[in-house]
Amino acid sequence: MPTGFPGKLMVMYVHEPSLMTIVCRGKTIKGSWDEFVLRLPLLLEKYNFQPSFIQAEMALVNGYVVGKTNSRSMLGYMNQQVKQLEYDCSLFASYDHISQDILEERMMEYLYQPADKKKPFTTAVEYWKEWMILP
Q1: Considering Cα of 46, then 86, then 18, then 33, what sign does the dihedral take?
Q2: Is the C or the N end of the chain the one with fewer CB within 10 Å?
Q3: Higher confidence at residue 119 or residue 12?
Q4: What is the DSSP letter of 22?
Q5: Which residues, including other chains, have CB under 8 Å from residue 53's CB and lie 6 or more apart?
Q6: CA neighbours within 13 Å on the CB side: how many for 94?
Q7: 43: three-class secondary structure by DSSP
């Protein structure tokens, strides 16, 4: 993901279908994976996910299927997220000053229309509340 700072990129890990997003410094999945594994439980804890859910997810994290998607709707969502995050990055003085926490918080509240167009617009937070993972 471009940051607006020449030669400085970030990788976004996006959960389908909630659009929960973890933002890591780097250019590749392989190069940012360890940071993803560190950031995931921090984001889950920050949003008060149930401890048992966090433990279960962290036990499964090395089995996650991570890669590029061919889903046109998911690509559409992600393209919109990239534009928003690139703009957000431009508000920081330098690449080193970019707060990944702020970017992730922004994406947790990012409004999107679910694939089922009969459902109202939602956010990642609302998605997880609907699944009763969040209070």
Answers
A1: negative
A2: C
A3: 12
A4: E
A5: 44, 133
A6: 2
A7: helix
| Predicted confidence (pLDDT) per residue in 5-40, tens digit | 999 999 999 999 999 999 999 999 999 999 999 999
Question: Which amino acid would we find at residue 125?
Answer: V
Interhelix angle 29-46/100-108, rounded to 10 degrees, is: 60
Tokens describing residue 113: 């229309």
Question: Residues 39, 75, 59, CA angle at the centre, nearest 5°?
Answer: 30
Using the CB atoms, write b or e for 101-128: b if 16+ within 10 Å.
eebbebbbebebebeeeeeeebbbbbbb
Instruction: Name residue 2's beta-bridge partners.
Output: 9
Tokens standing for residue 116: 């089922």
Kindly report the pTM of this predicted structure. 0.93
In the structure encoding, which two tokens stand for residue 132, read together? 């009763």
CB of 43 closer than 8 Å to CB of 59: no
